[in-house]
Amino acid sequence: MTVTHVGFSDESNWNTGRFRSLGLVTAPLEYLDGLARELRHLLEESDMAEFKWKKLDGAKERFTAQKMCKCTVDKACAMQLRVDVLVWDIQDSRHSVHGRDDIANLQRMYYHLFRNVLRARWPNDAVWRLYPDEHTAMDWETVKDCLDAVSTRIELERSLLTGGDFRFRLKRDFGIEEITPGNSREHPLLQLADLFAGLAVFSRDKYDDYQGWLKATSAQKLLIIEDTIEDTKIPNPSRSARERFQVLKAFDEECKRRKLGVSLQTKRGLWTPKPRNPINFWIYEPQTPEDK
Fold first, then answer.
1. Are 133 and 184 in contact, with CB atoms under 8 Å apart?
2. Of 27, 28, 144, 147, which sees the most CB atoms within 10 A?
């Protein structure tokens, strides 16, 4: 079948820390070349071959991330792409269990993400080519080999809650025709997925520190204006945290300016109340007491 849409996915902290995330950037195939070309130009202007969230610790990376955020907001408002990020908390009732299998859990989270984006946010007849980042815990080669497997459809709740295998009928359920693990240097939209997956986790993990930094920077400006030397007891976050705080602040302000409905304070981290919005941060919540 002819591919009509593309998706680029990446993970952040899938097996470390309290908060984990999956980022998925999707777009109609007709916009792919233009989006990739613009992002490459942006990276070249910033003298960067590749953006990685985990390497954001200086002004150069910060400026690049801010430009990428603004470009994404512009393209999302023009309906040329979507960004969906699924975040989960390993301290919730689903994940706080002895002997949790993080890779099996990651598989299920991918299924939830696909189910809520590929069919619910795009046309039902869309035919997909997916580009997950090649540096992943997922065995995408095995999943790809199963696309053409013939099997009876397993009910979603039964398969998720009784240890069903991840080899779901991806082609039948979601119209996934191809899965091609990709190198993020070659696919700039994978770098977007990395950026927003990382930003989502950071916004929740460092929410209190971020609020303290905002107050501190406001206090510093006030002191400069009033020309005093009062001890303000301003916290001193790391250089990397300060750079990332500035990216988060710029992104939050841009989303508000464009009325994209992305909230930061309500859930103490990035969250979109209306998931149909083109930039959607979604917090996974356990569905039933058996959802472990």
1. yes
2. 27
Helix, strand or coil, per DSSP, at residue 10: strand
How far is residue 182 from each of residues 7, 24, 112, measured CA to CA in Å? 11, 14, 22
Beta bridge partners of 28: 5
Mean of pLDDT values over 214-225 = 67
For residues 272 and 263, the answer to whether their CB atoms sit within 8 Å is yes
Place of tokens 């002004």: 59
The position carrying tokens 């996915």 is 9
Give the Cα-Cα-Cα angle 124, 261, 24 (nearest 5 degrees). Answer: 45
pTM: 0.84
Q: Alpha helices of 206-278 — where are they, by DSSP H?
A: 207-226, 239-257
Q: For residue 99, what pLDDT band results from cuts at 50, 70 and 90? A: low
- Copy the structure tokens of residue 261: 């409905």
Mean pLDDT across the chain? 83
Torsion of CA 146, 141, 285, 96, to 10 degrees: 110
Q: Which residues pair with 24 in a beta bridge?
A: 9, 84
Residue type, 34: G
- Give the pLDDT of residue 230: 44
What mean pLDDT do residues 122-130 have?
Answer: 93
Helix-helix angle 207-226:239-257, to 10 degrees: 90
CA distance linking residue 274 with residue 260, whole number of Å: 9
Are residues 7 and 26 in contact, defined by beta-carbon separation less than 8 angstroms?
yes
Residues 6+ apart with CB under 8 A from 37: none
> Taking a C-beta distance cutoff of 8 angstroms, is the pair 132, 181 a contact?
yes
Q: Region 100-109: what's the mean pLDDT?
A: 76
